[in-house]
Specification:
Blueprint: H1 2-18, H2 23-26, H3 41-48, E1 50-51, E2 54-55, H4 59-90, H5 96-107, H6 115-124, H7 131-156, H8 159-167, H9 172-183, H10 185-201, H11 204-209, H12 218-223, E3 226-227, E4 230-231, H13 233-253, H14 255-268
Helix pairs in contact: 3-13, 4-7, 4-10, 5-7, 7-10, 10-14
Length: about 270
């Protein structure tokens, strides 16, 4: 077990050490696992937006944009997806199974195929370089995940509880909010974190739909640490480490719900 933990944690440990290395150590012909001189220069340059070749996007602004886009798209996706998942899990209507398959089939379409049509649509709407464009796109592409995952959790809950509530006069929306959602909270949290990570790490749409510093996300900002044929490894490594801290902190804080949600999904799904 210790060997497995060492093998898993060693790359992350080397990544942290590399953030305190100078450009000379990172660009040396011989590999330096331990920096000759420890320095905080990479962190200061990341937050100041200054690299060896000029100005770069403000890192804190890009981080704030990623937080706004990822959280907003995740909350909207969960809000819309849980109603669709509830309908597919509890109501019987013609074409329900075909609808579920078509929803999943939409997500299997390569994103690059829809890139140009989406760009034309949002350009005519004047939404290029605006965060709502990314929020809508992420919501559309992540909605099938939420529907499929949440309808599995809803189906695992016995119907007898809902039937008793219906006898007492509780409406379908009341059953959803008072019974189903509290019982499926671990699955809702696990699904939300899964969608949040996808939105946080997305690069292709963010790089195409944003070109101003006020709209760029963290993934785009990190990619711009290489310019004019030069790659600033120190700033890329430091930016990547800082960008990974919010998802790691969120996962550690909600690990109880994640483990419970994934285990229940594997047992009942």
């Amino acid at each position: 077990m210790c060997l497995i933990m060492l093998f898993t944690a060693l790359p992350l440990l080397l990544l942290v050490i590399a953030t305190f290395s100078s450009s000379g150590d990172l660009n040396a012909k011989t590999l330096h696992l331990w920096p000759a001189v420890w320095t905080f220069d990479n962190y200061s340059r990341v937050f100041s937006g200054e690299a060896s070749d000029g100005s770069l996007p403000p890192f804190l602004t890009a981080m704030k944009n990623s937080v706004v886009v990822a959280l907003s798209s995740t909350l909207l996706t969960l809000l819309i997806g849980m109603f669709a998942a509830y309908a597919c899990a509890r109501f019987r209507f013609r074409g329900r199974d075909a609808l579920l398959v078509s929803i999943l089939g939409f997500r299997m379409v390569p994103e690059v195929v829809l890139l140009i049509p989406l760009y034309v649509i949002f350009a005519r709407m004047g939404m290029i370089n605006h965060k709502p464009a990314l929020i809508v796109i992420y919501m559309a592409f992540n909605l099938p995940y939420v529907i499929w995952m949440m309808q599995t959790y809803f189906r695992s809950i016995p119907r007898s509880m809902e039937e008793s509530a219906q006898i007492d006069g509780v409406s379908p929306l009341g059953i959803l909010f008072k019974f189903l959602l509290p019982l499926s909270l671990p699955g809702l949290v696990a699904t939300g974190i899964f969608v949040l990570l996808i939105a946080w790490d997305e690069f292709m749409f963010a790089s195409i739909f944003t070109s101003t510093y006020d709209a760029k996300t963290i993934t785009v900002a990190i990619s711009e640490f290489s310019k004019r044929g030069m790659i600033d490894f120190g700033m890329q490594i430091t930016g990547g480490l800082l960008a990974s801290l919010p998802p790691i902190a969120l996962a550690l804080f909600l690990q109880k719900y994640i483990i419970s949600g994934l285990s229940e999904g594997s047992e009942k799904g």
